Every structure is written in structure tokens, then in C-alpha cells.
Amino acid sequence: xxxxxxxxxxxxxxxxxxxxxxxxxxxxxxxxxxxxxxxxxxxxxxxxxxxxxxxxxxxxxxxxxxxxxxxxxxxxxxxxxxxxxxxxxxxxxxxx
Length: 96
What we know:
Blueprint: E1 3-10, H1 12-16, H2 21-34, E2 38-44, E3 51-56, H3 59-72, E4 75-82, H4 85-93
């Protein structure tokens, strides 16, 4: 199953309602699971991003979930496709 790393920043609205962040994450996790997306880990972080989320699931389900989350207005996201060592070996095997 494809893995995704999502870098998250709070919007002004999300920062104003920061105390609800853990509850919003639990709601996100429930929605993700209902779409076949598995939340592997979440970390509230210091530095350039406020949270880092690791998920696995079908791309279309992740896209739908991302759009639903964006519409709530609490966070802005940047999602990266992650590849395992095994996946990289297969990709590299196809290089000339």
C-alpha cells in the first residue's frame, strides 16, 4: 500500500482553536479508516511544521480525505509520496 508523509501547518483558525487539535486528529483518523487509509503515526512538532502525519492507503482515498480536511480550514498540508527500500529497489532496477 502506498505510504504518504504529510507536513502540516496550522492556519490562524487552527491556532486559535489549538486545544481542539487532538480531538480533530481523532476525527481525522476515524474518517481515514472509513476510507481505507491507515494512520501509521502522527507527531506534533517543533520547527517549520506543526505536525507530521504518516499514512498508507489508496491515492484516491487520500486525496478525498485531504480535500475534506482542507475544507475545515484548520490546517494547510503538503503531502509527499514515500517509498520503502523494496519499492526503491524495484524502481531502480528499471533504470538503464
